[in-house]
């Protein structure tokens, strides 16, 4: 089935617009106004490659505070795992005051787009170390953590259950990499009934004495800008992650981008960044660093949609998008995933005119598989392309393929 574009030179931007619209129909969440992408075509190619590899090649690595949890709820900031400990069951008023002073001092530094990670690193170490020392002095009781979490206003992002449920159903491991407090983190997801066997947590864990009182924190300190070291030291020990070269990474800090550094021989990494605060100041840095940026989006909608597509067995990617060029170049272009059966779509040059001396670009729709459905492929293509309602799209005319001798 062939559709003739009556232009001798067809602008590639028109064709790319068609491709982008077709992609939106497959993952419409990527068209949300909160979604920003610097290189959409590369994102599409990465998603397509990961989908071809399937769920068996995928692992998900995610931050926790302000990534899996909401940033705000009903106009109020949602507490981090450290903030959940700000409860009279656990710490006194003086400790609360000192922790808030540290937060007011160091949080602006953590999110300061004008400072490099190297400049921030020693200050983050100082912040986390001082907070942990304050908590140790309070002799926090292990048996009171569950009650403190229950009384807190911690809220996971909308769509969290679908996220956790889908990963466990597809047997995709989820590694939560958090600079927060691991004991509190575990209790949050446990109370939300999503602490499944495929969930692994790397975080700062408390060390309690025989009476159940906090006496220290275990192992190496993990803060927002040393996750690379933690990733390298822990990932090798998780057998479940071996043989899974494709990574979906979720984070809310530029420091989270190093969480996948422990993945050996990775093939594709797709990064999604939640830009929660100081949007205008940090937007450029996030767009230049993450593949997909979600601006003040309190849901898991985009992550769930991407996961649903990558793990789908029904709609296979049969090709990839064309990078934008300055002039028309006839070549195999794309494989729309809009149809209920496999089709190939590409541009090629066709001879026209009585002497067949003129070349024109032609949009070709070819069905792959059952010949009975061949005509239907053309009908679906007609509907899809007309449904786009693009101003730049010229009127399409059905023509017969010329037989070659």
TrEMBL record:
It catalyses: CMP + H2O = cytidine + phosphate; a ribonucleoside 5'-phosphate + H2O = a ribonucleoside + phosphate; N(7)-methyl-GMP + H2O = N(7)-methylguanosine + phosphate. It comes from the Eukaryota. Pfam families: UMPH-1. GO terms for cellular component: cytoplasm. Its EC number is 3.1.3.5. It is found in: Cytoplasm. Keywords: Cytoplasm, Hydrolase, Magnesium, Metal-binding, Nucleotide metabolism, Nucleotide-binding. One of its GO terms (biological process) is nucleotide metabolic process. GO terms for molecular function: 5'-nucleotidase activity; magnesium ion binding; nucleotide binding. Gene3D superfamilies: HAD superfamily/HAD-like, Pyrimidine 5'-nucleotidase (UMPH-1), N-terminal domain. InterPro entries: HAD-like_sf, HAD_sf, Pyrimidine_nucleotidase_eu. Specifically hydrolyzes 7-methylguanosine monophosphate (m(7)GMP) to 7-methylguanosine and inorganic phosphate. The specific activity for m(7)GMP may protect cells against undesired salvage of m(7)GMP and its incorporation into nucleic acids. Also has weak activity for CMP. UMP and purine nucleotides are poor substrates. Belongs to the pyrimidine 5'-nucleotidase family. NCBIfam families: HAD-SF-IE. Monomer. This is 5'-nucleotidase. It comes from Gasterosteus aculeatus aculeatus (three-spined stickleback).
């Amino acid at each position: 089935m062939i559709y003739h574009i009556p232009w001798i030179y067809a602008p590639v931007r028109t064709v790319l617009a068609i491709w982008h619209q077709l992609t939106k129909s497959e993952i419409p969440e990527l068209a949300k106004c909160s979604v920003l992408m610097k290189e959409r075509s590369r994102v599409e190619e990465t998603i397509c490659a990961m989908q071809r590899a399937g769920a068996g090649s995928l692992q998900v690595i995610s931050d926790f505070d302000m990534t899996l949890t909401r940033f705000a709820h009903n106009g109020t900031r949602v507490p981090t795992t450290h903030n959940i400990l700000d409860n009279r069951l656990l710490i006194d008023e003086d400790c609360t005051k000192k922790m808030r002073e540290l937060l007011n001092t160091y949080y602006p530094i953590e999110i300061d787009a004008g400072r490099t990670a190297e400049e921030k690193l020693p200050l983050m170490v100082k912040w986390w170390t001082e907070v942990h020392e304050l908590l140790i002095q309070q002799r926090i009781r292990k048996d009171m953590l569950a009650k403190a979490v229950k009384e807190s206003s911690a809220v996971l992002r909308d769509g969290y259950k679908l996220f956790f449920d889908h990963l466990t159903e597809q047997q995709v491991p989820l590694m939560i990499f958090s600079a927060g407090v691991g004991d509190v983190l575990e209790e949050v997801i446990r109370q939300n009934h999503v602490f499944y066997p495929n969930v692994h947590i790397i975080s700062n864990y408390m060390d309690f004495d025989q009476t159940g009182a906090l006496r220290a924190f275990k192992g190496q300190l993990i803060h927002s800008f040393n996750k690379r070291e933690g990733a390298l030291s822990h990932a090798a020990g998780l057998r479940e992650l071996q043989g899974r070269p494709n990574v979906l990474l979720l984070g809310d800090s530029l420091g989270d981008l190093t969480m996948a550094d422990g993945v050996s021989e990775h093939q594709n990494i797709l990064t999604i960044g939640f830009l929660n605060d100081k949007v205008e100041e940090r937007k450029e840095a996030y767009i230049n660093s993450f593949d997909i940026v979600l601006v003040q989006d309190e849901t898991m909608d985009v992550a769930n949609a991407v996961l649903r597509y990558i793990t789908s067995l029904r709609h296979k990617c049969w090709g990839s998008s064309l990078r934008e060029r300055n002039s028309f170049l006839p070549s195999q272009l794309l494989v729309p995933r809009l149809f209920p059966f496999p089709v190939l779509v590409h541009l090629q040059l066709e001879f026209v005119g009585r002497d067949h001396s003129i070349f024109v670009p032609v949009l070709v729709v070819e069905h792959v598989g059952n010949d009975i459905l061949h005509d239907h492929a053309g009908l679906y293509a007609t509907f899809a392309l007309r449904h786009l309602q693009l101003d730049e799209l010229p009127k399409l005319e059905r023509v017969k393929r010329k037989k070659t001798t």
